[in-house]
Every structure is written in structure tokens, then in C-alpha cells.
Amino acid sequence: MAVAEPLNQPATFATDEERDATKRKPERAALAAGGLAALLAGACCLGPLILVSIGMSGAGLAYLPRLEPYRPLFLAVGALALAFAWQRIYRPAAECKPGEVCAIPRVRRGYKIGFWSVAALLLVVFVHPYFAPLFY
Amino acid sequence: MSLKTFRHTLVAAALALASTAALAELKTVTLSVPGMDCAACPITVKKALSRVPGVSEVAASLEKKEAVVTYDDSKATLDALTKATANAGYPSSVRQ
User: Fold this and answer.
1) ipTM exceeds 0.90
2) How many CB atoms lie within 10 A of CB B59?
3) Helices (H), A15-104
4) Which residue in A63, A30, A65, A62 sits closest to A45, CA to CA?
């Protein structure tokens, strides 16, 4: 699984607890890995379409369709990463140790938004082949 | 020049004009696009070809891996068509 680059952390935290929560970040890594996997899974097929649509075409686009054979792999990795993130983010707050992401409502809400954003991206990448024929 | 010859010349000129107009009319070509093998690919290829000036109609087929293009050959060239698909990620060639 791809290791995610640490994202820019906000400079200020309401409490020490929140700062600790952003330090311990298996959830963040899982969401980043899931998002990266979704992007890679979509790169082969939706990539050229989006780039051509916004007018960015070029010979380099020929590399993108070569990712197509790995699409199922990327989808599986993305789904696994999301399943892990789900389990971390949505477990009952009572089970969370103080300072963990799921223990602080404000931080937890942010992770929930992140989770559903990545889930939506992965879903679009997964189902687009079934809707593509409508646009032929 | 007699009136008859003049008429003949006129008719010939009209015919010549009509045939030049016919030369600039729509042509249809079938492009073989071997790399077009995903569900969204035909949409991409169609979009890329439609953007070439002079192209009036594109039908891309996933099963046959080809695109049938109708274009005005006074505005678009075959080279421009194959270049357009290549720049969208799907190199193509004219099917004979």
C-alpha cells in the first residue's frame, strides 16, 4: 500500500488533545491511500476524458491507458483502505482512547467528511463503466 | 465565338464549379483505434475528434475498436484526425 505524504497540518489547535489527535494518524494515512488508489484506478480511463474535456491533450496521455490492467488492484486497495478508515473513524467514541481522532467530535467530523469524499470518488471510478455507454 | 459554344462553355464552367464544390464536401473515414478498450474510451476519442475543425460527425465503437468520422476535407486532414486521437491517449490509423 502506498504510504501517504503527511498533509499540511493546521498551525493552531484548540486543545493539546486535538494536536495529539493529528499526530497519531492511521486514519489520515488510510484516507490518503484510499484517495490515491481511487485516482490511480480512474487514471486509465477517466483521466484522458477529463483532460481532453478541459482542453489539455498531448502525446503524454498515451501513458494513462496503460494503467488499465491494474484498475481492479487499485480498486481493491482503495476499498481496503476505506474499510480500515471506516472502522477507525466510526467506532463508538466510548472505545476511543483520549487524544485519538475518534474521541474529539470536531476532528471526528472532519474525518467523516474526508471519508465520504474519498468513498464518493472511489464509487464514481468503480461504477463509471456501467454508465459510460449512455454517453456514446 | 458562337452562342452555342458560349452556352457549352457556360455549362462546362458550371459543372466544373459544381465538382469543385463536391470535392470539398464531406468525406467519411474509418479510423482503427486499437487502444480504445475501456468503457469511457469511446467518449474520449469522440470528444477529441469532434474538436478537430471540419469534423461534423463521429461514431466511436468499443466493440470494433474504431471510429467513423465524417469531415470536410477542405478543413480537416487525415493527419489532423489521427493526431487528435493520439493526443487524447489513443493512437489511431486509417482503416483501409
Assistant:
1) no
2) 15
3) 16-23, 26-43, 46-53, 71-89
4) A65
